[in-house]
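R.M. (postdoc): so does anyone remember the format we settled on? I'll just put the structure tokens first.
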């Protein structure tokens, strides 16, 4: 018989092997302590596939940029120069305010200031599960990525790193139904917890009494109390408030600032404590000046 017409293993056998492998992986992930390490190994193993899958889009984007007209490039360059000039002015004011803040903290004996280093990463893949909102990034432990590292975009908080391999990492988005983040209202300072609902554009603010001063349109910022996210980054805007006297808490929904369903590039924050500089002491032998 001609071997070119011979068939491989049957489809039922292939299905059985796939089911056995899936059940084994779920068992290891659920009932063993090495699940995190196993996920890291699996992420490392499949990361080349993510790079290959994203290669056509990368090549297409590069070709599109090459064919941009010269006038469009000039217009974009002028706009970027104007934006850079505006941000430079804001940066000068920010540096002055930062120096003043450090002096006040030193006088009050306050806690250390947090200085964050940023690493740019690109999204390689998005998990297709309807409720598990996770993405794979092209940066790993070789680039300094660690677990529980905060992830932001140009609008606000995106999520945090939950698993890191040598060349790639996995981030859990704030919209995931297992994620929660500590926030405070910018207008009143009220503290709360925001959790994901498995939807890209809706978050829920938890356990707010009916007497809480909160309004639609209030900005919710990270409070820094959870130890994962640095303080002061935008998280969401209050979109809907519903009060029912029969319930112990009001129902509050918020819209995340980050465009979670279309993120392409993100920033990874690496927080390093930095002590404020103490106030300068008078030189030895110097006579202090009298206060008027």
């Amino acid at each position: 018989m001609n071997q070119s017409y011979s068939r491989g293993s049957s489809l039922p056998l292939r299905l059985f092997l796939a089911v056995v492998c899936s059940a084994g992986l779920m068992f290891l992930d659920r009932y063993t302590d090495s699940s995190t390490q196993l996920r890291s190994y699996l992420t490392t193993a499949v990361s080349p596939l993510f790079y290959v899958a994203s290669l056509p889009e990368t090549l297409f984007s590069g070709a599109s940029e090459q064919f941009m007209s010269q006038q469009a490039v000039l217009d974009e360059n002028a706009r970027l120069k104007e934006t850079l000039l505006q941000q430079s002015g804001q940066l000068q004011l920010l540096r002055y305010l930062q120096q003043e803040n450090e002096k006040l903290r030193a006088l009050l004996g306050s806690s250390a200031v947090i200085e964050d280093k940023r690493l740019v990463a690109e999204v390689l893949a998005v998990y297709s599960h309807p409720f598990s909102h996770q993405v794979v990034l092209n940066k790993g432990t070789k680039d300094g990525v660690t677990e529980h590292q905060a992830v932001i975009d140009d609008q606000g908080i995106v999520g945090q790193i939950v698993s890191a391999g040598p060349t790639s990492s996995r981030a859990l988005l704030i919209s995931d139904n297992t994620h929660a983040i500590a926030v405070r209202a910018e207008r009143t300072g009220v503290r709360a917890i925001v959790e994901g609902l498995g939807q890209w554009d809706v978050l829920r603010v938890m356990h707010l009494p009916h007497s809480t001063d909160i309004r639609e349109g209030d900005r919710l910022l990270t409070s820094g109390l959870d130890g994962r996210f640095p303080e002061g980054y935008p998280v969401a805007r209050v979109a809907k408030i519903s009060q029912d006297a029969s319930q112990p808490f009001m129902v509050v929904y918020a819209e995340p600032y980050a465009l979670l369903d279309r993120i392409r590039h993100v920033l990874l924050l690496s927080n390093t404590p930095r002590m404020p500089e103490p106030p300068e002491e008078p030189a030895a032998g110097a006579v202090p000046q009298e206060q008027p």
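R.M.: ...and that's the designed sequence above, right after the tokens. Also worth knowing: The chain has a mean pLDDT of 81. DSSP finds three helices and twelve strands in the chain.
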